[in-house]
Amino acid sequence: MAQKTQVGIIGAGPAGLLLAHMLHRQGIGSIIIEAQTREAIEGTIKAGVLEHPTVQLLDELGVGERMHAVGFEHHGIELAFGGKRHRIDLHELTGGKSIMVYPQHEVIKDLVAAVLANGTTIEFGVRDVALQGIEGTRPSIRYTLDGEARQIECDFIAGCDGFHGPSRQAIPAALRVEHLKTYPCGWFGILCEAPPSSDELIYAQSDRGFVLVSTRTPTVQRMYFQCDPSDHVDNWSDERIWAEFHARTEGSDGWRLKEGRIFQKGIIAMRSFVCETMQHGRLFLAGDAAHIVPPTGAKGLNLAAGDVVLLSGAIVDFYRDNSHQSLDSYSARALKRVWRGEQFSWFMTTLLHDFDGEDTITRRFRRAQLDYLVSSRAASTSLAENYVGLPFEGSA
Ligand code: RFL
Ligand code: PHB
Question: Where's the FAD-binding domain (predicted)?
Fold first, then answer.
């Protein structure tokens, strides 16, 4: 079976869904194909923090209602080190900006509902996806659904299929420069039934390694501690997990993390990756398909949103003015914001994690940088403006 549309979108993550919705609002048709089921994408626990520009974008697109109703706007974060907690007042330092703690799977639910409501087709559970003819003017995507061979013929393909998807590989290897850094640590993430331990996120550095205290709802908390990436969740009883969290977070002020029943555990790898270029012929990559960051800066989903703003704008320009100009410069423009987010994520990761075998001078440098960050307004402001998110290109 062959279908025709203007933009064929591979992947119903934040990037693919946002793109379909933005294109629809400009009268441009698309079809999304997704490898997983709707239940799976709406239930996978991932990101928690939305930057100020992402929140604004979701509002502009009319999909921000539930986010404001059940998400939490935070005006600051805390950096904990040397037994003390230090507040970074994001709101004051950035002229009134903030971040939103709202889980990625809730964003996905909002976007899937909006995209289906506007009449866009999402085909879930596809297999054997192959991109064809991207160097010509009429590319196509072949795939199977329930064993039946299918095809989408389109003007453009948007590769929004995450780090492991096939789109990036469709760019000839000789035309791709891939930059990769693997960190010698992972994050052990838990979800637990407990009240919040803090009104704001805590990024804690200690000699035993990093801890992040985040939240989901008034009764569900999200927390992470730095671990060996090759460790296994079965090695960690609930008791051992809590002992590790306490040992890494307790300081001189008597503050103590609140415990609760742990109902989800997982280990996450930490990588920085960028693919240059993000486009080839009629194929355009967006989001994790082209770049990933370690989660310490809370940037991945937000970088995906920035890509989609540029890509949808370029596609709109093409249909409105018959101009290739914005499309041709998509990768170069997108990569500027991507590299900023990549550098910030690396900075936050190396600032807050301890790595085995480090020399003592590196540890002292880290402490000097942390002291500077919390004592200099200039340094705090730089952290704050990156954390709340730099403006998307072309937006205020
Ligand atoms: P996604 O979300 O990976 O979506 C890609 C989609 O493509 C589908 N797919 C295919 N579909 C069809 N055919 C194929 N052959 C396919 N292969 C794959 C997949 O099933 C999937 O549905 O990429 P996208 O849209 O680029 O979005 C990126 C974000 O998901 C990611 O960057 C964030 O989750 C990163 N991240 C965070 N980002 C933030 O902005 N703020 C945060 O606070 C934050 N915290 C995090 C995070 C990621 C984490 N993990 C789990 C890696 C915390 C964690 C723990
Ligand atoms: C989360 O709540 O999952 C979260 C928050 C901040 C980060 C990463 C993840 O930097």
Answer: 4-344
CA distance 327 to 283: 10
Summarize pLDDT for 310-323 with one digit per residue, the tens: 999 999 999 999 99
Mean pLDDT for all residues in the chain: 96
| CATH architecture of the domain with range 2-48+103-177+276-355 | 3-Layer(bba) Sandwich (3.50)
CATH class of 180-271: alpha beta
Sheet with strand 261-276: strands edge to edge:
84-88, 77-81, 201-204, 211-215, 220-227, 177-193, 261-276, 291-292
Nearest-CA residue for ligand 1 atom 51 is 46
Q: How many angstroms does the Cα of residue 178 sit away from the middle of ligand 1? A: 19
pTM value surpassing 0.85: yes
Distance CA 33, CA 393 (A): 28
Is residue 237 packed enough to be buried (19+ CB in 10 Å), middle (13-18) or exposed (0-12)?
Answer: exposed
Q: Catalytic: 68?
A: no
Domain boundaries, the chain: 2-48+103-177+276-355, 180-271
pLDDT tens string 81-101: 999 999 999 999 999 999 999
C-alpha to C-alpha distance for 218 and 58, rounded to whole angstroms: 23
Hey, which of 78, 104, 214 would you mutate to test ligand 2's pocket, going by the most ligand atoms within 8 Å of its Cβ? Answer: 214
